[in-house]
Design brief:
Elements: E1 2-7, E2 10-15, E3 22-25, E4 34-35, E5 41-42, H1 45-51, H2 57-64, H3 68-78, H4 80-93
Antiparallel strand pairs: 1-2, 1-3, 4-5
Helix pairs in contact: 3-4
């Protein structure tokens, strides 16, 4: 059993013992979650943004690389060396190893 102290629809504290002013909640409910109008619980978008892990260099690179179609077009029209120059900009911006 899990119990939560809820104030203004926000889970303030969790307890595993029944306490005054605490309500019974599912095991997937945690502090800082917001009680939704349908009775479910979720974190706010702000909380998710603050607490989500930072992107890895792989994810950062993937977001900035040109599309595969554009990369192939660059290779076809300008050659591998010109394509490498374009890709190197992103690789240098987000290196694998930061010293």
């Amino acid at each position: 059993m899990k119990y939560a102290l809820i104030e203004n629809n926000i889970v303030k504290q969790i307890s595993y013992q029944e306490e005054e002013n605490y309500v019974k909640v599912d095991d997937i409910v945690f502090a800082d979650m917001v009680k939704q109008s349908d009775g479910s619980y979720d974190y706010t978008d702000e909380y998710k943004t603050i607490h989500q892990p930072a992107d890895t260099y792989v994810e950062k690179r993937a977001k900035e690389y040109p599309s595969i179609v554009d990369q192939l077009d660059k290779i076809y029209h300008s050659g591998i060396d010109e394509w490498k120059k374009v890709i190197k900009i992103t690789k240098d911006k987000y290196p694998k190893w930061v010293i």
